TrEMBL record:
One of its GO terms (biological process) is meiotic cell cycle. Residues 322-337 have a biased composition (Basic and acidic residues). It is found in: Chromosome; Nucleus. Keywords: Chromosome, Meiosis, Nucleus. Residues 305-315 have a biased composition (Polar residues). GO terms for cellular component: chromosome; nucleus. Its main location: nucleus. Pfam families: HORMA. Signal peptide: none annotated. This is HORMA domain-containing protein. Residues 36-245 form the HORMA domain. Residues 295-346 are annotated as: Disordered. InterPro entries: HORMA_dom, HORMA_dom_sf, HORMA_MeioticProgression.
Length: 346
């Protein structure tokens, strides 16, 4: 059995909230309402999403991947368990799921830098997490001073709408990754380094780290003026996560997100999905499908400034890292970091 093969107890399913697709059930829980199944869905979604990024951004060579399916009709490339190096990455992502289940993971980022051990990134794919208390959403629409909420703040008020909606969110997220990598981003340079880096919540013990990581004082920083785009979100029963990309190879954030919005709308119509509005940074959408420009929306502040983190131990493909907040630094936590996922030099 591979590190992410399904092992679900169907007795936990809600008969009114089940996806019966056979391909889906090989990887994902048929129902994502319960806490355990919500956690397992997030673990497998991270595996699928990062597999697609690593493949479509050409960070790893073709032999690291094999064909897989999200549903009977939707296929994707995923890390190949028969490839020893790819299997180690898959195991790291499975271990990351343990941190999600404990409520300890705040962010996991695939960080691409010009050189090994650089702190400043040229491109970052970041999943940030929100944990719900018994599935209850946060009830707020604006900040205390009346300003529009950031995408991550809006994530905290999303309602769980059933497993079929979660399936649609994952399909659209993976399709958006492909579109972004192939239609929006410029090519990566001939030489670069890539690794996984982690940030933990305040609930995590000071000495906690994802298994397979080692300590470091490095997380990542972003150059001034770097552009970014929201790719998609996932909202199973007890969790929510938002994926975005910051890259020096995005020419303009608004144009990138507008292109993604047009693509998402067209694809939703084609697949017969109910369009789940992505939590864009540069504009917001309403139920009438109109949008209004509100300028570049700041996130929760985690992408600016220095960050301290955690690296992954023997991953031959990338090195993961984890940030600690300033108050956590005072507690003495070292940064978690994963050894490089890939270093491409030609």
């Amino acid at each position: 059995m591979g590190p992410l093969d399904a092992d679900y107890n169907d007795s936990a399913n809600n008969s009114n909230d089940i996806v019966t697709d056979a391909k889906w059930s090989k990887i994902f829980p048929p129902c994502t309402a319960e806490f355990e199944m919500s956690s397992k869905f997030i673990t497998r979604a991270l595996f699928v999403a990062f597999s697609v990024i690593l493949k479509r951004r050409k960070i790893l060579p073709p032999d690291y991947f094999s064909k897989n399916h999200i549903t009977e009709k939707i296929s994707c490339a995923s890390l190949n368990f028969n490839n020893e190096k790819a299997l180690k990455i898959a195991q790291l992502l499975k271990n990351t799921g343990d941190a999600v289940q404990l409520g300890y993971l705040k962010e996991i980022a695939l960080v691409i830098t010009e050189n090994e051990q650089d702190e400043e990134a040229i491109e970052v794919y970041s999943f940030k997490f929100h944990y719900f208390d018994h599935g209850v959403t946060a009830q707020f629409n604006t900040t205390a001073n009346g300003e529009q909420l950031s995408p991550f703040e809006r994530l905290a008020k999303l309602e769980y709408q059933g497993t079929a909606s979660v399936r649609d969110q994952l399909v659209m997220l993976t399709k958006n990754i492909v579109f972004l990598c192939e239609k929006v981003l410029e090519k990566l340079p001939e030489t670069f380094d890539a690794n996984f880096r982690f940030d933990y919540t305040d609930q995590a013990p000071v000495d906690y780290r994802v298994e397979g990581c080692f300590n470091s004082t490095t997380f990542y920083t972003l150059p001034a003026g770097i552009q970014s785009a929201s790719i998609g979100h996932l909202r199973p029963g007890h969790h929510a996560t938002l994926l975005d990309c910051s890259s020096i190879f995005i020419a303009d954030s608004y144009q990138a997100e507008l292109s993604l919005k047009r693509f998402t709308t067209k694809l939703s119509d084609k697949l017969g999905f109910v369009a789940n509005d992505v939590l864009y940074k540069t504009f917001v959408t309403d139920e009438s499908s109109s949008h209004r420009t509100i300028g570049m929306m700041a996130e929760d502040g985690t992408n600016g400034g220095n960050k301290s983190n955690e690296l992954s131990q023997d991953s031959p493909v990338m090195r993961p890292i984890t940030r600690r907040d300033s108050e956590r630094v005072n507690k003495g936590r070292d940064s978690p970091y994963v050894k490089k996922v890939h270093s491409r030099k030609r």
